[in-house]
Amino acid sequence: MAMDNFDRDDYFSNRELSWLLFNERVLEEARDKENPLLERIKFLSITASNLDEFFMVRVASLIDMVNVGYDKPDASGLRADQQLSAISEKAHQMINQQYTTYNRMLKKMLNENKIHLLEIEELSQKQLDFIDHYFNREIYPVLTPMAVDSSRPFPLILNKSINIAAFIHKKGSKASQNEFVTVQVPNVLPRVVKLPDHEGHTSFILLENVIRRHLNQLFVGYELDEASCYRVMRDMDLEVDEEDTEDLLKEIEKQLRLRERGNVIHLDVEAGISERLVTKLFDRLSVSPDNVYRVNGPIDLTFLSKLAGQIKQPGDMVYPPHRPFVHYELLDHSIFHAMRAGDIFLHHPYESFDPVIELIRQASRDRHVLAIKMTLYRVSGNSPIIRYLEKAAENGKQVTVLVELKARFDEENNINWAQKLEKTGCHVIYGLVGLKTHCKMALVVRREEDGIKRYMHFGTGNYNDITAHFYTDMGLLTCNEQMGIDASNVFNMLSGYSEPPYFYKLVIAPLWLRDRLLDLIDTEIKNAQSGKPAFIRAKMNALSDEGIIKALYRASAAGVDIQLLVRGICCLRTGIPGVSDHIEVHSIVGRYLEHSRIYLFGNGGETLAFLASADLMPRNLNRRVELMFPIEDEQIKATIIDLFDLMMRDNVKTRVLGSDHRYEKPDRRGKIPFNVQEHLAKLAEQQTIRRDHSLREKRTFTPIKGRANEPFNSENREF
């Protein structure tokens, strides 16, 4: 089939509508009766959080396109205005389903488990006395009622803040002579307020309902006509001209302040709001009716995660704890000796993230270590890696850290880390102009008896010790000499003006990753055409790049067997005769967030295996510094291939993309249920039990074969 035949609109799905399908799959987990109750509550909260970010970034971007008259259609043939119309219809349906799930299923089940989210009229006298006292003592001093009249303009409504809009009139005057007022529900106070209750019951009330009960106290001499909650979302995309700015950190700080004043692109109101009050909000906020969402319940369901977190003894209402396997041979011995013995594969959260932290910890104290270099995209709020990088600088190591200031919604956090690291003597860089640095890599340079040696960690996920507990990611600890040279070259590119002509092992975007992937796909096409076995197996978070999708179509048309695990967006269509009938797409949505990126190619019988930080999206291939690294250790390669096969076997948390572009769970009739995440977690627990039993029997530590066979060297500990 000619290349031109793959350009048809109906061969591609719209990116935004595909994302909404992904969020539907998350919502299905909130509705799944097999999931524990509080986990279902959290899934519903996640769908709300996901949708918020979607509006603030993706919908805002489409609105900008319409405003500037950009009318070029996407690969699926939809212009920006057509996408907005389709999104509005689907998003309204999704939000209605969210509240149906909450009102008809989850709230009822919470009550059955003696967990109650109460309205004012449901409170006992003791609870009423409590909130009256709480309001006067804690809430009232913080509130600022805002009148709107000729001398007091409509105030700035903060992004995602809950607010109460009201009409009031002066006592003794006619109700028709009313005034508009608005009150922000303070975000410095907990939104979920725990109430006193009788034994065995746990009750809560939302902060906005406590305030609404006491609104009259804010407007002395006035009568309250009506009051209703609302929330706005603004365009939160950063617009930074990196070419013309002298100080990127200061420019991003400035843009963060301006972002709070971005255009309103979404308005949530309570379903019972009057037309008169909602019209007032329309006019003042300059939002179109298509972007107004009337919700049948509490605005902003993300509070549900906080509610679930306040249940002290959740019992079987949460997932049973999983115990990750801990590589004690890496933590209790020299990690450098272990890495010299061979490459080490890590699979989180089934294996502990501690070895990654330990690499930086040992490097910060080892007197033979000369330098540490790292890229940081997202880290936790109390990151041990940051602490050890600071300790390394204090111990005289040369520490270079690339902190990505443009990591969406982590900009402020990363600015703080950058400033903190600089104060302790680290060299902090912000990457290349016009590109986000999304690759995950750490490089430790160590002087040894036989000369300088480099030790690296390459990963598919962030250096975040918290998300490592529930994101599935893969990493490689290696001291491969050629990879070490490549890693040094990457850091030299990021910190200076170095442009190496080639790399030995690592594949970097935006320089070579796209071309390398296309070459690998073309090799599979040639193998299929010459009668050799040919396959492509890939796992990623999103697939939306038009060029890559066309290449996969060419491969499928040539007879290449293609299996894809795509958690989220997938713009490729399956089941098109002669085009994609050799392509199978699965999506796993479960307890853990699937985040690892795997790329496997048949290569005529000698399988090539790669892990990467990059999804197959235009932004990853064109506008980000990304890393794809080969897996050359045969045992590790076999492990990754086996893991991929296990994921494709999942029939519990998998949805399969059909030719109608709907995702359906596989038919399990006559088959044993197989949940790959639970399976891998149990394997990790069993491995831990066997290791612990072996340690008790021997009463001495024996390293795992092939990992760390050299004795512990005390000089490598803290000094």
Explain this structure.
ATP binds at residues 50, 471, 567, 595. It comes from Sporolactobacillus shoreicorticis. Keywords: ATP-binding, Kinase, Magnesium, Metal-binding, Nucleotide-binding, Phosphoprotein, Transferase. The chain has 719 residues and is of the alpha/beta class.
The major pleated sheet works out as: 10 strands, mixed
* Rounded average pLDDT: 90
Strand content of the residues, in percent? 15-25%
Distance between the termini: 66 Å
Features of the shown structure:
719 residues, alpha/beta, 10-stranded mixed β-sheet, 19 helices, 21% strand, disordered C terminus
Short description:
With 719 residues, the protein is of the alpha/beta class. The chain contains 19 helices and 27 strands.
Task: Please give the structural blueprint.
Elements: H1 15-31, H2 37-67, H3 80-112, E1 115-117, H4 125-139, E2 145-147, E3 162-170, E4 178-184, E5 192-195, E6 202-206, H5 207-213, E7 222-234, H6 248-259, E8 264-270, H7 275-285, E9 292-295, H8 303-309, H9 328-331, H10 335-341, E10 344-348, H11 354-365, E11 369-376, H12 384-394, E12 398-403, H13 411-423, E13 427-429, E14 436-437, E15 440-448, E16 451-459, E17 471-478, H14 481-495, E18 507-509, H15 513-529, E19 535-540, H16 546-557, E20 561-566, E21 583-588, E22 593-594, E23 597-601, E24 608-612, H17 618-622, E25 624-630, H18 634-649, E26 654-657, E27 663-664, H19 676-698
Parallel strand pairs: 1-6, 8-9, 11-12, 12-13, 14-25, 17-22, 19-20, 20-21
Antiparallel strand pairs: 2-4, 3-4, 3-7, 5-6, 7-8, 10-17, 11-15, 15-16, 16-17, 18-25, 19-23, 21-26, 23-24, 24-25, 26-27
Helix pairs in contact: 1-2, 1-3, 2-3, 2-8, 11-12, 15-16
